[in-house]
Amino acid sequence: MKLDVMTLDGAAAGSVDLSDAIYGLEPRVDLIHRVVRYQLAKRQAGTHATLLRSEINRTKKKLYKQKGTGGARHGAASAPQFRGGGRAFGPVQRSHAHDLQKKVRALGLKHALSAKAKDASIIIVDDVKLSEPKTKALKGQFAKLGLGSVLIIGGAEIDKNFGLAARSIPNVDVLPVQGINVYDIMRREKLVLTKSAVDALEARFK
């Protein structure tokens, strides 16, 4: 698959061949869904918790005698049915993460890239660098490329000026190539890859 390479100003800067083994697959929604679910579950805090009846700081003495009152039998004021008592079956602190094989995660990334390629939503740029961190100027460059909701993948390091200019633009995410992931790819309409990112991805999947 051959795509044209653009500059940030919208000028032509040659072309690049994309590997069909990475960008030419028939996208499988089930694989993409599994990886997205894995990512979102892994980042859940899991800090939700309530006090169970054993954790309530109230007397555990029996409220009244077992028989003869004509009412229900009760043991302690920390029981869930009383005001100030513990929560029955409440949430506890836990990890929501679950395992997913490394091969499946890698395959999910390939299928996410292929899905963008199939929709013609991948744009290749020569580099993402700015001489000064000006958000207004960067917005103008994005307008020339027709970018609104976009994920930009740079090289091993993101240019500092570019990162500063892009961070206050809504619906624009900027990541180094090591941080590319299925969830961020699928949540944005366009995917912008630099030439160095393309080379790094092909080396990663060899």
Question: Descriptors for this entry?
Answer:
single chain, 206 residues, alpha/beta, Ribosomal Protein L4, Chain: A, 2 domains, 6-stranded mixed sheet, 7 helices, 33% helix, elongated
Give a structural overview.
The chain folds into two domains: about 1-45 and about 100-205, 3-Layer(aba) Sandwich (Ribosomal Protein L4, Chain: A); about 45-95, no CATH class. About 20% of the residues are buried. The chain has about 210 residues and is of the alpha/beta class. The mean pLDDT is about 95. It contains seven helices and six strands. Strand 4 (about 150-155), helix 5 and strand 5 (about 170-175) form a beta-alpha-beta unit.
Multimeric status of the protein:
single chain
CATH fold-level name of the largest domain? Ribosomal Protein L4, Chain: A
CATH class descriptor of the largest domain: Alpha Beta
What order do the SSEs take from the amino end to the carboxyl end, as H and E? EEHHHEHEHEHEH
State the helical fraction: 25-40%
Structural class: alpha/beta
Q: Return the CATH architecture of the largest domain.
A: 3-Layer(aba) Sandwich
Question: How many alpha or pi helices?
Answer: 7
Q: Give the number of DSSP strands.
A: 6
Short description:
33% of the residues lie in helices and 14% in strands. With 206 residues, it is α/β, with parallel strands linked by helices. It has two domains: 2-44 and 98-204, Ribosomal protein L4/L1 (Ribosomal Protein L4, Chain: A, 3-Layer(aba) Sandwich), CATH 3.40.1370; 45-95, no CATH class.
